[in-house]
C-alpha cells in the first residue's frame, strides 16, 4: 500500500459522499499526517508514480493458480515386517531368536492454517502416501517408523469422505463372520501358513514348511493412534486455523519378530509376521470460505484493478471482457506490525485481525445463472465470500441498472441452488432388493452393505458423489457498492442516482433487487473510487472490517 502514503488528492465526489460512513469501528489516526496544504493538481494517469502497478500493460501480471475443490486419496503407511534372526556368537551354536519387530507406518494429519488460500497444491496430487515402517532387524532391533504426512489446507475447508479401504477393519469383520464356523477358523489359522501373513527364514528349505506347525495367526494389531482417528465417515468443517494438526489416518502396526513365537515345543521359530497393510481413505476437500470479501461485477468493471489498488496482487488487467478467468486472491494487510495498524479490530475470537483476504471473481453477465459467459462456476465463488463488494463501473451506463442485473443473477442462482439441494437429497440412496432369501457371505466392512436378508441399501463407493455443501444464502450476506472509474468525466449524476437508490433500499422504500425475503438489512453505501489512481480506496478496508465483525 505504498502508493497510499504519498500526497493525497482530495477525492472527486466530496460533495456527494456522506460526511462519515457511520462506521462501526475506530479508525486509527495516521502517523505521518502532513500539515502542509496538499497540492490540488491531479497529474495525468500515465505519470502517477504507482501507475505501473495500477495501470499495467496486459502482459504484466502474475498467474495465480487456484482450485477450490480437490479429491485426494490418503494412504497411511504400512507396517514393516518382523525379522527372523538368531543370536550368533562364538561358542553359542544355536542362539536364541532375536528378530526385531517391524516399525509402524507413517500417519496422515491435517491442519487448517491461515495464509493458504487455495487447494491447488492438493488438486494436482491425487494420491498422498505416508512412509512405510522399516523392517525389524537382527539383535532385537526394531524397525524405524514411517514418515508422517501433514496436509495443510486453508481455514474454511470442508473435508468429506468419499470411500475408504481399511484392511484391518475388513479382516476383523471377516473373522467376526467366521467365528461361528469352527471348521473354517481352524483351517485358516492353524496348521497352514498364509503366504501373505508370515515372513520365513531365508535359509530354510521349502520342505520344512510343509511339515512345520504354525501358531494361530495373531489378531491384526491396532496402534494406539487409531483411537484418535475421526469416526468414519470423515466429515470435518475446518473453519478456524488449528493450533495442532489432527490425525486423519493412523499408520498400521509393524509385524512381530520371531521371539514372539518361541514356545516350549519350538524354541527356534523360523517365522515372523508381516506388517499390517495401511488404510487408505479418499476424501473430497472443498473450500467453504473463499475470502473475507468477494468482488462481484460485470466484465471490464475494474475489479482486478481495484484488487491491485488494495493489495499487492498482480492480477491481470486488460481493456476487454473476461480478462480474469479464475478468481484472483489478494491480501489486504491491515497491520504489518511496523506501526499502528490501519484499522484496529478484533475478531470474534478476540484475536486481532491483521489482514483481509479478497477474491476478485470473474465477471458476471446477464443469464450467468444459466451458465452463460463464465457462468455457474463463478457464482459458486460468490457464495463463498463473507462480504460482497459490488464493483460498478460508473462510466458504463446506468449504475442502478447494473446493480439490479447483478442481483438478479445472484437471486436466480440462489433459487437454482435451493432446487438442486432438494433433488440431491431425494436421489442420494438407491434401493436394491436381494434375490430370494439366500444369505450373502459378502463382508459389510466397506460401508456399502447395511442389512442382510432385507432390502439392502447400496451406495457404490467408487462413484459416490457427495451432495453440495450447505451455504449461507447469497442474499443474506452483508454487501456494499464500490463505484469505480469515478475519475471519468460526467459520472457524478450516475453516482448520485446510485446513492439515492441505496438510501431508498436501506429505508425499505424500494424492493430488494434480489427479490428475496431474507435479504441482508443493513446500511448500504456506495464508495466512489478511482482504482486506477488509487483514490478513495482507503475507505474500503474500514467498511469491510465493520461488516465482517458486525
Ligand atoms: N478510468 C479508469 N479506468 C479504469 C479504472 N479501473 C479500471 N480501469 C480500466 O478498466 C479496464 C478493465 O479493468 P480490469 O481491472 O481488467 O476489469 P475487470 O473487472 O477485472 O475485468 P474482467 O476481468 O474482464 O472481469 C482496464 O483497462 C483498466 O485500466 C478506473 O478507476 N478508472
Ligand atoms: Mg479482472
From TrEMBL:
What InterPro entries is this protein classified in?
A: G_OBG, GTP-bd, GTP1_OBG_dom, GTP1_OBG_dom_sf, OBG_GTPase, P-loop_NTPase
* GO terms assigned for molecular function: GTP binding; GTPase activity
The top of its lineage is: Eukaryota, Fungi, Dikarya, Ascomycota, Pezizomycotina
Methyltransferase recorded as keyword: no
Domain named OBG-type G: residues: 291-549
Residue ranges, annotated region (Disordered)? 32-60, 127-146
Recorded protein name is: GTPase of the mitochondrial inner membrane that associates with the large ribosomal subunit
Q: Does the keyword GTP-binding apply?
A: yes
Looking up Pfam families in the UniProt record yields: GTP1_OBG, MMR_HSR1
Organism in which the protein naturally occurs: Alectoria fallacina
Ranges of compositional bias, category Gly residues: 133-143
Start and end residues of each Obg domain:
64-290
Q: Which domain of life is it from?
A: Eukaryota
Q: Which GO biological process categories is it annotated with?
A: ribosome biogenesis
Query: GO CC annotations?
Result: mitochondrion
List UniProt keywords, sorted A-Z: GTP-binding, Nucleotide-binding
Amino acid at each position: 500500500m505504498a502508493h497510499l502514503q504519498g500526497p493525497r488528492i482530495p477525492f472527486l465526489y466530496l460533495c456527494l459522499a456522506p460526511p462519515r460512513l457511520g462506521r462501526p469501528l475506530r479508525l486509527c489516526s495516521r502517523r505521518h499526517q502532513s500539515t502542509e496544504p496538499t497540492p490540488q493538481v491531479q497529474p495525468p494517469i500515465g505519470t502517477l508514480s504507482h501507475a505501473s502497478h495500477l495501470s499495467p500493460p496486459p502482459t504484466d501480471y502474475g498467474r495465480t493458480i487456484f482450485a477450490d475443490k480437490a479429491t485426494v486419496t490418503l494412504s497411511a503407511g504400512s507396517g514393516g515386517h518382523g525379522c527372523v534372526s538368531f543370536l550368533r556368537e562364538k561358542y553359542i551354536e544355536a542362539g536364541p531368536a532375536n528378530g526385531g519387530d517391524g516399525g509402524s507406518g507413517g500417519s496422515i494429519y491435517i491442519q487448517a492454517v491461515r495464509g493458504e488460500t487455495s487447494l491447488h497444491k492438493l488438486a494436482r496430487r491425487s494420491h498422498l502416501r505416508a512412509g512405510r515402517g522399516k523392517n525389524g532387524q537382527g539383535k532385537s532391533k526394531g524397525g524405524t517408523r514411517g514418515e508422517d504426512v501433514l496436509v495443510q489446507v486453508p481455514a474454511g475447508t470442508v473435508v468429506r469422505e468419499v470411500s475408504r479401504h481399511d484392511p484391518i477393519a475388513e479382516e476383523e469383520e471377516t473373522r467376526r463372520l467366521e467365528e461361528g464356523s469352527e471348521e473354517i477358523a481352524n483351517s485358516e489359522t492353524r496348521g497352514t501358513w498364509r503366504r501373505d501373513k508370515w515372513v520365513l527364514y531365508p535359509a530354510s528349505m521349502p520342505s520344512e514348511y510343509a511339515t512345520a506347525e504354525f501358531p494361530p495367526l495373531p489378531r491384526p494389531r491396532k496402534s494406539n493412534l487409531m483411537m484418535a482417528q475421526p469416526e468414519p465417515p470423515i466429515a470435518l468443517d475446518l473453519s478456524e486455523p488449528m493450533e495442532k494438526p489432527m490425525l486423519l489416518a493412523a499408520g498400521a502396526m509393524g509385524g512381530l519378530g520371531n521371539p514372539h513365537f518361541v514356545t516350549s515345543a519350538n524354541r527356534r521359530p523360523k517365522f515372523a509376521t508381516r506388517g499390517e497393510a495401511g488404510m487408505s481413505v479418499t476424501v473430497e476437500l472443498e473450500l467453504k470460505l473463499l475470502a473475507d470479501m468477494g468482488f462481484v461485477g460485470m466484465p471490464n468493471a475494474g475489479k482486478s484493478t481495484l484488487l491491485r489498488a488494495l493489495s499487492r496482487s498482480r492480477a491481470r488487467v486488460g481493456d476487454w471482457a473476461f480478462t480474469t478467468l479464475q478468481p484472483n486472491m489478494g491480501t489486504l494487510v491491515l497491520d504489518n506490525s511496523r506501526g499502528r495498524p490501519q484499522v484496529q479490530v478484533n475478531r470474534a475470537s478476540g484475536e486481532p485481525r491483521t489482514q483481509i483476504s479478497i477474491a476478485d471473481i470473474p465477471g458476471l453477465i446477464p443469464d450467468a445463472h444459466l451458465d452463460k459467459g463464465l457462468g455457474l462456476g463463478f457464482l459458486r465463488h460468490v457464495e463463498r465470500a463473507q462480504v460482497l463488494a459490488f464493483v460498478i463501473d460508473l462510466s458504463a451506463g446506468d449504475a442502478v441498472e447494473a446493480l439490479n442485473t447483478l442481483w438478479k443473477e445472484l437471486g436466480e442462482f440462489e433459487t437454482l441452488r435451493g432446487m438442486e439441494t432438494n433433488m440431491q437429497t431425494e436421489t442420494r440412496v438407491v434401493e436394491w432388493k436381494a434375490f430370494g432369501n439366500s444369505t450373502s457371505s459378502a463382508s459389510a466392512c466397506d460401508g456399502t452393505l447395511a442389512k442382510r436378508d432385507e432390502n439392502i441399501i447400496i451406495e457404490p463407493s467408487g462413484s459416490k458423489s457427495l451432495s453440495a455443501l450447505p451455504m449461507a444464502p447469497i442474499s443474506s450476506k452483508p454487501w456494499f457498492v464500490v463505484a469505480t472509474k469515478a475519475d471519468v468525466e460526467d459520472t457524478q449524476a450516475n453516482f448520485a442516482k446510485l446513492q439515492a437508490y441505496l438510501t431508498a433500499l436501506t429505508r425499505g422504500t424500494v424492493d430488494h433487487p434480489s427479490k428475496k425475503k431474507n435479504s441482508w438489512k443493513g446500511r448500504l453505501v456506495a464508495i466512489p473510487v478511482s482504482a486506477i489512481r488509487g483514490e478513495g480506496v482507503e475507505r474500503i478496508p474500514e467498511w469491510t472490517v465493520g461488516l465482517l465483525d458486525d
